[in-house]
Amino acid sequence: MKKIILLFIFLTPFCLSAQYSDFGNWLIYIGSKDLNKGWNWHHEIQQRNYNAIGDQEQLLIRTGIGKNLTEGNNNLLMGYGYILSENYTGQGDEKMSLNEHRIFQQYTTNQTWGRGIAVQHRYRFEQRFIEDTDFRVRFRYFLSIRVPITKPTIEDNSFYLSIYNELFLDAQEHPFDRNRVYAASGFQFSKNLKMELGYMSQLFGTDNRDQLNIMALVNF
Length: 220
Hints:
- The chain is built from one helix and eleven strands, in the order H-E-E-E-E-E-E-E-E-E-E-E.
- A hairpin with a 5-residue loop joins strand 8 and strand 9.
- 12% of the residues are buried.
- The protein has one domain: Lipocalin (Beta Barrel).
- The protein has an eleven-stranded mixed β-barrel with strand order 1-2-3-4-5-6-7-8-9-10-11.
- By secondary structure, the chain is mainly beta.
């Protein structure tokens, strides 16, 4: 508990910096609950801001039920997400709100390289219902690598380096949607709790956006 308090004290200055900024911030909670016979309940909340905090870009709530095909290595999951986006219209401080309901199916596989490098591949299909008038289908491929720093393997009370790349492709004439590159330092308090502080850069066609990410990953 003392380590958690110290970590939040360290992160507080990032969340209280100036309101107006081109550098955004994501606050992320990702949880997983083990159920009976290899089933699991996934749930997450993400608060995405245009600046450090207080100017909401997007609220994302996602949940789903998954099934482990093998012990801890392969998982199939079907889920639902609600996304509220608040986009600037280009006219001063005016915003336009968009509601999206999303159904998704995903397959996740985990591997270990050497003694302690953890590799994860995730393949996700999304069916997106935007404002009840726009329907889109999207494919996402996620590759992440976690490397132990202070111990030979990622274990309790140890630091690690986390990096990932995620590619988004639309089923449209111009398929490229976006690409995310992320790098973070993380601390594993126990097998049930990890926290990360990281930097993400997103590429949208010819535009890009950067943000600071603060993430908690909880298993219970």
